[in-house]
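note to self: the first set is below, dont mix up w the second
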Amino acid sequence: MTAITDFASLLAAARAQPTPQRLLFAFCQRRLHDDHTAQEAERFAAGEGGILQPILCVDKTPAELGDFAQLAQDADALDARWQLVFVAAIDSSSSADADGPLKRMVQTIQTGGDVARYLAFNRDGALLQFL
């Protein structure tokens, strides 16, 4: 099993799989929920708390990807508000197969589900960890 420590090792691991892979990406922004308190707003302003809102989703094969900088640039061209991206992989070469898993991924993020099952990277490409 290959340790994934950065985006390059994620791509290498996906490319090394015996079956074709699709990588699912959910680009998210951090925001306050509508009925936030003044204390929550203060914490948010200090860089803590808030909720994650998916604003852009895409699936790609490892062959369609170069490096994280290119992925970020492509995402910025569509919506530059994203602050982090969640990533999952499925065994498939067809984009049609990605629809259901991508929708479940977005739903998990929106409902505050177990996002620790996904990889996450910040805008700089640093691997994040959710506990």
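second set (the one i keep forgetting abt)
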Amino acid sequence: MSSGNRSEAVDVQKSYEVRTYGCQMNVHDSERLSGLLEDAGYVRAPEGSDGDADVVVFNTCAVRENADNKLYGNLGRLAPMKTKRPGMQIAVGGCLAQKDRDTIVKRAPWVDVVFGTHNIGKLPVLLERARVQEEAQIEIAESLEAFPSTLPTRRESAYAAWVSISVGCNNTCTFCIVPALRGKEKDRRTGDILAEIEALVAEGVSEITLLGQNVNAYGSDIGDREAFSKLLRACGKIEGLERVRFTSPHPRDFTDDVIAAMAETPNVMPQLHMPMQSGSDAVLKAMRRSYRQERFLGIIEKVRAAMPDAAISTDIIVGFPGESEEDFEQTMHAVREARFANAFTFQYSKRPGTPAADMDGQIPKEVVQERYMRLSALQEQISWDENKKQVGRTLDVMVAEGEGRKDGATRRLSGRAPDNRLVHFTQPEQAVRPGDVVTVEITYAAPHHLLAEGTPLAVRSTRAGDAWEKRTAAAAAKPAGVMLGLPGVGAPDPLPAAAAPACGIG
């Protein structure tokens, strides 16, 4: 009798779905939101549930001109589903929630909870309060209540993890609203960061990405300009940690000690994503970016001198208010000089609440589009040329999960080279798992990926692969009908090269 009651209790366990928009910071926050909900007894809804969950959480982005239209469109599609499902709840958090606050419930009165970027830990309490009081709960904190890394986490990967080292930003870029929504920079204690990394490695994680709105400004809280380079070197001493990456640095804070730490620390990967935004000094000044083209290209030159094989990527905004054809040509010149492995190029769009939105000299859309196409074509050719230089090289590729959409049809697997280039390779005879390392020879290059068509030269099983196998076996062994999330190890795979950092990071 009691056994039947336990089964019934499991079957009615409430499910949740988290929908994430925007940058890596939001992706990491969503891991925390999922962890909080599972810690409170919710279970993750199956993939493809498309709103068919008891709780649907939107973790929003506010940096796009149409971000609110996208949110309200999605909320509108859920309204009839909620009418048919008594007890269903909808929560909205993230940057747009921090910005719009009461507006969300006015435009979508069926929303149950609105919370901001500083109090994501309150989500389970707010959901319960909304359920008991039968009215919407809106709670927006003006400053960080607890560093997100102190919260429970539901990580998606057994071998790669985000590790947040700071939140907020002290810059005042005129196109970016993020500092107003995330607040001033707040750094974690170095000891706490290293303790988290060591715990992740003990669970099987072999690659970590240090994450911050302006990651290389780390240490500004304590006045130590070399704190970030010291952190990189400390990561190099953690046994079992094979790959260290970071995103996104700001050129203003990119100092020689960071370049030296990257070059001299074996597990810091030869990869750099550093937003340029524009190659025009006049536009950079209007953006309130505190460097100029010469300074930016000088950093690139120093990085390449220290790490000749480094892959460097960037962000570029086309059509910023006041950008002349001459300004745009300066951007094209900088791209030719820098020879980025890839660049995330954006057409400028007004971000409500930013100084740039009210600037004179807004560029007609057709002009922005034409310039964007010219820049994209140039960068596409450069990316292809740079990838062709990889042909014939022997690379150690960390096997990834879900990176190659055509892998099943082509009998290939996919993974990331040390410089984060995407590599598709022939499936070896022996079994390999995500997190394992395969040595391959590159035989072909496309603009956005490399191909290794021959038999892999070597396969190395890793603790990360063991962790993936253990996690997969545990998930398969769970009884049918019990919608539990996967064990909390790892973090999202590194973002694909084609996925743009869609907010003001950097």
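remember for set 2: Residues 1-11, 479-502 have pLDDT under 50 and may be disordered.
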